[in-house]
Design brief:
By secondary structure, the chain is of the alpha+beta class. It contains three helices and five strands, in the order βαβααβββ. A five-stranded mixed sheet has the order 2-1-5-3-4. β3 (53-57) and β4 (60-62) form a beta hairpin. The longest helix has 9 residues, at 30-38. The chain starts with a strand and ends with a strand.
Length: 82
């Protein structure tokens, strides 16, 4: 299972600081991960636009085409604080 960490205002918006999830086969990179999470609707859709967050994969900053899988730690941080 992939471990997803949320930081800053995202913790308040999502009501959690982390979760472990089994990624569906359609989630292969950061772009598809964010789209999958946005499909939850509400604050998820509003807060996880590609231009609104920075993502790390295994503690390294990632681009939208960086591969992801169930064995990774993924952190999502707002691109702009405040």
């Amino acid at each position: 299972m992939a471990k997803i960490l949320y930081f800053s205002i995202l913790v308040d918006k999502f009501g959690r600081s982390s979760e472990e999830v089994a990624l569906p086969g359609s989630v292969t990179d950061v772009r598809t991960l964010l789209a999958w999470l946005r499909a939850r609707g509400g604050d998820w859709e509003k807060s996880l636009r590609e231009d609104a967050v920075k993502v790390t994969v295994n503690r390294q900053f990632a681009e939208v085409d960086t591969a992801v899988n169930d064995k990774m730690e993924i952190a999502i941080v707002p691109a702009r604080l405040g």
